[in-house]
Amino acid sequence: MAEPEWRRIYGFRVVISAPSGVAPPPHRPLRARLAGFAAAAFLLAGVIAIGVAIAAQVHAPQPVSAGTTGGGPGPALERSLPVSVDIPAIGVSSSLLSLGLNQDGTIQVPPLTPGADEAAWYRYSATPGQRGTSVIEGHLDTYHGPAVFFRLGALRPGNHINVTLTDGITAVFRVTGVREYAKSDFPAETIYGGNGYAALHLITCGGAFDDASHHYLSSVVVFATLSSYRRLTA
Description:
Layout: E1 8-9, E2 12-13, H1 30-56, E3 66-67, E4 82-87, E5 92-99, E6 119-122, E7 132-137, E8 141-142, E9 145-146, E10 160-165, E11 169-182, H2 188-192, E12 198-210, E13 215-231
Parallel strand pairs: 5-6, 7-12
Antiparallel strand pairs: 1-2, 3-11, 4-5, 4-10, 6-7, 8-9, 10-11, 11-13, 12-13
């Protein structure tokens, strides 16, 4: 997720410079001085506003490694493509894109514009509720602020994830664990490998942001298993 070279403050590119060595202004008429005072007041208000924005900026919740990455025997569903995902505990309600692989074999990610507010199902994984591992990914943030999975790290074991399928069934998953992994040591087999039960893994960026590479250095992964499901009633 590339970032600009400016300091990034969730949508604000802030550059404040203080000129030095400037000679004092010559004497000016009263009207000109009043205009100067007004301009200075607007500038001060702008600096205060920037200061408030910096102080009030929201940081992504840091995940606490808790629970387990595995699951056990439980219910399972027939294959049906996912339509949307809802995570009440962190206020997420998103339609789902369907993404595959890039030409170099890496997994595609949603476009920053306009896809930052939409999560995406990895279409070469199981569909949510099938036996096996289903993978849904989403951006943490963008140049303009928080994205769909900004608060993913706040999830805890016991929280629920609801995925609506094209056949009208809503698969209800229970979070079993939350982990943060360095991208240099990402356990791909654990995240994408098959399971004998219906697993769901949610992925976003996390950890420190590297200004040199313009990428986050870690990934946040939420592990969940299918606990129940409900059918759409007319």
